[in-house]
Amino acid sequence: MKIGKLFLIGLVVVFFSCGDEDEPQPTAAGLVGTWSMTALEYGGSSTTTVAGVSLMSAFTGVGKEIDLTITFRENPNTITSEGSYVIALTTTTAGQSFTQDFPFNNFVADGTWSLNGRVITVTSALGAEEATLVSQTSTTLVIGVETEQTQSAGGTTIRTRVQAQYTLTKI
């Protein structure tokens, strides 16, 4: 009986350790070109604290009216974006939900880019911003962005966390 249990445990270990190989790392050469944004998923939370009392809001959003291109060039590594998109954002606070559209022009400020593993850093006049290349093929690029920001003024603190995923297709 013990041999049967050991065999079963060994089989389970072998089964779970043999999986799909990791997705290949993104390459700088694979980024070069012009990409069109085709989808955007957006979500997060915001907590406002006043006099020790906190109120949390959760939000989700999707891109619409997307007409945006991003161009990566190399030698030197520059990035530019043109166009616009709208995020239809649904916010829920204290059980009440409302949806509002937020228009955006361009995706990033023009600047330079570097790639280290899956992390792409874009540096512009606004500073350096990092994102994760979730996946990259010759025709599709998925970029993930996570940010956390805290602002305080006049006894009020607002802490916001955002996760966004952008899907782009090479043109």
Helix content: 10-25%
Count of DSSP H/I helices: 2
Q: What share of residues are in beta strands? A: over 45%
Number of strands: 9
Can you describe this structure?
- The protein starts with a helix and ends with a strand.
- It is mostly beta strands.
- The longest helix is centred in the N-terminal third of the chain and has 16 residues, at 2-17.
- The protein has an 8-stranded antiparallel barrel.
- Helix content is 12%, strand content 68%.
- A hairpin with a 2-residue loop joins strand 3 (78-93) and strand 4.
- It has helices at residues 2-17, 28-31; strands spanning 33-50, 53-73, 78-93, 96-105, 111-116, 119-124, 127-136, 140-153, 156-170.
- Mean pLDDT is 88; it is low at 1-20.
- The chain is built from 2 helices and 9 strands.
What is the structure about, briefly put?
With 171 residues, the chain is mainly β.
Would you spell out the secondary-structure blueprint of this structure?
Layout: H1 2-17, H2 28-31, E1 33-50, E2 53-73, E3 78-93, E4 96-105, E5 111-116, E6 119-124, E7 127-136, E8 140-153, E9 156-170
Antiparallel strand pairs: 1-2, 1-9, 2-3, 3-4, 3-5, 5-6, 6-7, 7-8, 8-9
